[in-house]
Design a protein that fits this description.
Helix content is 43%, strand content 16%. The chain contains 13 helices and ten strands.
């Protein structure tokens, strides 16, 4: 009997040891993405969650928290339990420049193709070159809208000061000003453009394929996450990459998944938007293209967010990307 009792104890201890040694299942986590439902930059996360790409890569991302944008989103990522998120580069660069312990670890989207630059249908303005001496409505100074304006003007051969930039508090204010002829032109996110009537109400003078190459969405990780759990970052970036590939290879199927994310936008509009973004090569698999970040820095200087040169190479870390994207 004693021998049987000892055998049971030994068996129990073995089971306990196996339980301790077995890897714990990944905890479900949410990821912060700036303006998730209002901007298509975050589409790979919706697709990746639905298709199980993150779980397959080894991280259980089950939800997305929509960030406010700018510095608020950067602070939210730093304070988050996950320690990774996606937001616009200007706020990130400014935060790193101020000493925050974060790094850019991937690029999410490659251009401002998620926006359109519009005028009213009866406007004499036909192209960006016609804007000299006109008024460009923006939400706020130093915003992505102002950066869009100055880079679009630059692409059209104009100088930033050739056009007066008028701050109107928010995007709705910029649209109201445009509709009441207070300003001549404005830029708005493509989703808002479609929700407000699209081409039946406004005329596009610069669309997705023509907008400047500045990444509206960049992935960042905190120093704490990079030191303590680098494999989690690798898994997030690997899962996101699979989602981007799916968007390019199966755009219609991806659009179907995203219908609930971008509701109440009609399904046909979601599909049209995603097709346009794919044609514009909007989504990045993650590779850190330094010229895109250089454009962001130049725009920041234009709008007064930076007053001196910075060393971007110290702000990025490509080592968490798949090896073929690190070059």
């Amino acid at each position: 009997m004693l021998q049987l009792k000892n055998s049971i104890i030994v068996f129990g201890l073995c089971l306990f040891a196996l339980g301790v040694a077995a890897p714990l299942p990944a905890m479900a986590e949410d990821i912060l993405v700036t303006q998730y439902k209002a901007d298509p930059s975050g589409a790979p996360y919706g697709v990746g969650i639905e298709k199980g790409f993150f779980k397959k890569a080894g991280v259980d991302i089950t939800g997305v928290i929509s960030g406010e944008g700018g510095g608020a989103s950067v602070r939210a990522v730093i304070a988050s339990e996950l320690g990774y998120g996606e937001t616009s580069p200007a706020g990130i660069i400014a935060a790193i420049n101020q000493g925050q312990d974060i790094k850019i670890v991937d690029i999410g989207s490659r251009s401002l193709a998620d926006n359109v630059i519009i005028v009213m249908p009866n406007s004499p303005i036909k192209a960006i070159q016609d804007l000299k001496g006109k008024k460009f409505g923006i939400s706020n100074p130093k915003s992505l809208g102002e950066m869009t304006a100055v880079l679009a003007l630059e692409k059209g051969g104009l100088k930033p000061d050739d056009v007066q930039r008028v701050a109107l508090g928010n995007l709705a204010g910029a649209l109201t000003a445009l509709e009441n002829n207070v300003v001549d032109v404005t830029s708005i996110p493509g989703i808002l453009f479609l929700m407000r009537g699209g081409e039946s109400k406004y005329r596009v003078i610069m669309g997705p394929k023509d907008l400047p190459a500045l990444p509206p969405a960049v992935g960042i990780a905190t120093g704490d996450l990079m030191k303590k759990n680098p494999d989690k970052i690798r898994a997030i970036l690997a899962g996101r990459r699979e989602a981007v590939k799916f968007i390019y290879e199966h755009t219609a199927d991806a659009s179907k998944i995203l219908e609930t994310v971008y509701a109440p936008l009609p399904p046909n509009d979601v599909d049209m938007m995603m097709q346009q973004l794919v044609e514009a090569n909007f989504y990045s698999e993650g590779k850190i293209e330094m010229p895109l970040l250089d454009n962001a820095v130049r725009a920041m200087k234009y709008v007064g967010m930076l007053d001196k040169d910075i060393d971007l190479t110290k702000m990025v870390d490509a080592s968490f990307l798949p090896s073929d994207l690190q070059k």
